[in-house]
Amino acid sequence: MSGSSAAPCRFAHYFAICGIDTETGLEPDELAALYQWLEADRQGRDPDTAATGENFEQSPLKRTFKSKVLARYPQNVEWNPFDQDAVNMLCMPKGLSFRTQADQRDPQFHSFIITREDGSRTYGFVHTFYEEVTSPQICSAMHTLYQMHNAESTPSSSSSSSSMDSLASSLDEADSPTSSSSSSRRAGGYDSSRDTLYVSKALCLITPMPFMHACRRFLSQLHRAVTADVAPPLPLESYVHNILYEVPLPAPGRSLKFHGVYEPIVCQRPGLGELQLADFPLAEAFTLLGAENLVQVFTCTLLEMQILLYSHDYQRLMTVAEGITTLLFPFQWQHVYVPILPASLLHFLDAPVPYLMGLQSKEGTDRSKLELPQEANLCFVDVDNHYIELPEDFPQFPNKTELIQELSEVLLSFGLSANTGAPPRTRTSPGSTPGSTPSTPGRERKTVALRQLEDDGRNGNLAVEELAVLELLQGNATLERLQALTKRTGVTVARVDALRAGVKAQGTEGQGGRTAAEEEELRNAKLNVQLREVFASRFTTMFADYEAFVIQSAPDLESWLTNREQMHNFDKASFLSDQPEPYLPFLSHFIETQMFATFVDNKIMSQWEEKEPLLRVFDARIDKARLYNVRAPSHRSSSYQRCSILKESAQAIEQRLMKIDHTAIHPHLLDMKIGQGKYAQGFFPKLQADVLNAGPTNNKWSHRTATAQRRKDRHRQQTEHLALDNDLKEKYMQEARSLGKNLRQPKLSDLSPAVIAQTNWKFVEGLLKECRMKTKRMLVEKMGREAVELGHGEANITGLEENTLIASLCDLLERIWSHGLQVKQGKSALWSHLLHYQAREEKLEQQQQAESPVCPALRKSDCFLAMPSLRVFLIQDMRHIQSMSEIKTDVGRARAWIRLSLEKKLLSQHLKQLLSRQALTKKLYKRYAFLRCEEEKEQFLFHLLSLNAVDYFCFTSVFTTIMIPYRVVIIPIKKLSNAMTTSNPWVCVSGELGDSGIMQIPKNVLEMTFDCQNLGKLTTVQLGHDNAGLLAKWLVDCVMVRNEITGHTYRFPCGRWLGKGVDDGSLERVLIGELVVPSGEEDSGRGCRTPPLQRSPSQTRRISITSLSGRGYKPTSAQIQEAIGESVNNIIKHFHKPEKERGSLTVLLCGENSLVAALEQFFHHGFKSARLFQKTVFVWDFVEKAVAYMESADQMGDLQETAEPLGMTCQSLCHYVNSINSTPRNIGKDGKFQLLVCLGARDRLLPQWLPLLVECPLILRMYEDTALLRDRSTVSTLIGVLETIHDFPITLEASLVKGIDL
């Protein structure tokens, strides 16, 4: 067909007409029949016996009948093939609709979008009107249907109890009451002898770019030409031919004028450096939702949640969807995008992927009737009632308040209010019903003058009134004071200068000689671009430095594409560490999204290919911002930067519309025979195909584009030789950009059950792939950091990043559990399944009370002689979550349960257990559901199993306020002492979040349980007794403490006596804990973090001469010095980690290989512990004697002549030692030495005290000549090492310093 080469720059590709096919007559919509088939299948009835006929319950005028594409011109355009099913379905999403003369029959306009597999889009614009039915067959068929309906109609209700049905019924409900009266003369009836029947017909333009206003005006003029009393100047064919073949697309940065039937139409296209074309009025989206709600929906879109728009008006759905997606610049929505979801595609709401869809609401059905398959991650937008429902706990957009303030001011400067819309609701308020909620008092505080101004802003804003208001504001002192006051209190008021600007602008506008419609269009275009600029400037400031964090590692495109999956493209951790704190919750989620990944991919590919247009504009803006403001270190501040180019952006548009760059050829007579092109008034005719199927061949710009196209073809052939074959590249890209790409747009055509099965199969594969990627990412992040740390300290990824990854895992599990779901209670599909499982198991349990318990999988503990093993029991974990009053919703419970299972390393096992009840899974899920695909399910559980390789504390660290039962077991060394003691023992357990307080242990009991608010990871246990009775001495091996919810067991090694006159005379000890790894896990791929735990610290900890294991152990001086260096190093490393991930400082000060242990070895080296009559001498004895010597020397005045600071130091040492000695606590000599070291480290005194001890003459008596303490150079090195800790604020745990009064 000729003229085809010109089509890429033709304004419109197709003109189509949809309506009733009089040849085939009335056909019930077979998609509706398919829907019934699906419903039957879902409810478990045999789908083939389900009624395939019409739905007799409904009045015939309300039923759906099949529409057809009656004509399209041209037949085909090669690069944009005509998709007949899709166009038909989207022109008439509900099929044909019939009316009688009694009904309203106003024409309607709506737009739609078709997204192709590669993500490119085509827009459709539809003008629907009602045309009288002239065919007697159709009238009589309708008459017959009415008679059958009246005969059949009985007051039975068809609504089934199944939850998903209500979705179907809410969409099929008759709008008029179908009472069982037999006369057809009731509302909505039809009698062929008396009534006139009308049927809908649609005129549709299909264009490559969204010139919504221009197409709307062209179609309405075309319709007016048919209904007008006087025929238009030219045949209709001339106008259609003109827009199809003679009107070009405007060039970038230019405007174009072409002619409709009655008046000219103007459109303009943004230049290359501007934001891309968006012709849908954002003002309408803001007025429908209100600025606050719109920003919240925008945030949900950025975080790739599921967004469902709900409105009775197709055009509103389109306006809001397109509005939100254009605000995403420079990012693009990467997932399913169906702003108008035809009734027959409802099963798409089942899609377990992020989506943005629009659903038409029937009059009279409200939100509560709408049952959706998955709501855990759903943002529900009720456009008509101006209200939204948000998913639980999602992060706020950075600087949200200031952003809303700036948007409101832009809206006010155009005379619009930003405050429509009910306040958003989260999912936690189930009882609320949608409806227009009254606005809050804050919204009422606008001054009267401004409210009037806003109102008339909606009605074309007459300049005179606005001037009057301005004069009123300027001339009235009270009002001026009021305005100053409102400014101070932060109430939004239109700024007077904005008003002035508006008035000035309108003064000039009125004279342009343009029509009201053109005025409105210009206003819309200016407002659109200003609102979009506000959002764009947010991203320019937030991502100004993104390029620095893009990792360019591949040498060429091909190798990059092949290794895309394995590569890290963006240094997320460094990027986040560079951002202001308040932005982190949002950014950490956002940089995990597909749209951000694609953005970074495009950036990397721009090395080898032409830049993607959005990226080009964005990068240019960042460069420009850098030129104007050399970004000082201030960029980390979270202060809000306003958009500075609002005026310029609006001016560019105004200039284009004031001065038209190009005028298209006028419509003209075509080469038609006389008599062709005649039609009856009021009926849109079939046009002459022969003149419309081919464009002109001699058109100057079609020739121009043909040569351009040839040039392009040549260029393409060359690049294809050089680069990868394009198909191959596209294939790589498809695979590289994981799930959702190939499902961007459901295939709107052949919807046989086979196609639906195929789509679901794609979903299943996609979910599995996503699961593989997520678990791999979680492992790599966790283990990567651990490997770097080489097992030292608490290796951990940033808590923030870990939380983000776990949240996205929770979201993935919710999506998997809601795929193919048919029975659900509550908002969470996973929790619903767990509840069903719980109900069944508890029933079974009651039946088998006499027999053994249901789930005997036991978990052996490391120390089976002491700690009774904890039963692994899925339902027990559920009960723990159910008893937590802090969690109020099902979605919250499901997430807590996932976190708990992950922390216990039981997630895979629990889910396997849950899915092993196949009868239950069959009852709850459709055949095609992910959970019923055996092989995929197995692989999925295997991926989750891999997470057991790392330690998560994602439950303990998040639910910090809950009560947790703990179990304590004390293990004495039985060989060497009595197992029991006559004294009264006590214990106090401390963790990162607090301590349990002192608890008495009942006599002769070595095990106790207690409830206490979450202590976090456990750090120390204080153990002691009151020395009462004959057998008061007690030799304790260790204390075991277990968190009974998470099953984490901690071992606190002791290995020493508690008692007067034995060991160092200690009646209480502070024990340092370590996490015990359950023995069953050794083989299942444990993480590489924790060093081998078999060696208890008692072997190396105390080198006290009496310590049982210390007798034979003598470290060399080199080993001792190394140990000191290592311990100080660990403390410094600790402080270099982000605060939330530091772990326990107590362990580094007092645990194994700690500072205290190392210094103890230092002081023990060469220490003469002569056993006079078996009495051991301790290091503390040396310290005490040294202090006594200093004090006596001080009194005798020997120290008078020493330098002042030294005297002070001497006093501080004496003061500390005496305070420690006079504490009411019965800590032994080693305990006292530990305390002195800890306090000295905290108060930065250790390096000053050491010289005093070295100078003391007692050292000659108590230490050998070879002792390290007597080696000057070693001591000064030690002092240097200890001084390095001074830069850090050391805080001591309460359990260490209790009872010390300094």
TrEMBL record:
Domain RUN: 800-960, 1146-1297
Gene Ontology CC terms: membrane
Polar residues bias spans: 695-708
Main location per the UniProt record: membrane
Tagged with keyword RNA-binding: no
Pfam families cross-referenced by the UniProt entry: dDENN, DENN, PLAT, RUN, uDENN
Compositionally biased residues, Low complexity: 151-191, 423-441
Keyword terms, alphabetized: Guanine-nucleotide releasing factor, Membrane, Repeat
Classification via InterPro entries: cDENN_dom, dDENN_dom, DEN5A/B, DENN_C, PLAT/LH2_dom, PLAT/LH2_dom_sf, PLAT_RAB6IP1, Run_dom
Region spans: Disordered: 151-192, 418-445, 695-718, 1081-1100
Keyword Membrane attached: yes
Superkingdom of the organism of origin: Eukaryota
CDD domains: PLAT_RAB6IP1
All copies of domain PLAT, residue ranges: 964-1072
Domain UDENN: start-end pairs: 49-610
Cellular localisation: Membrane
Gene Ontology terms, MF aspect: guanyl-nucleotide exchange factor activity; small GTPase binding
Listed PANTHER family: DENN DOMAIN-CONTAINING PROTEIN 5B (PTHR46070:SF3), PINSTRIPE, ISOFORM A (PTHR46070)
Family: Belongs to the RAB6IP1 family.
Protein's UniProt name: DENN/MADD domain containing 5B
Highest classification ranks of the organism: Eukaryota, Metazoa, Chordata, Craniata, Vertebrata
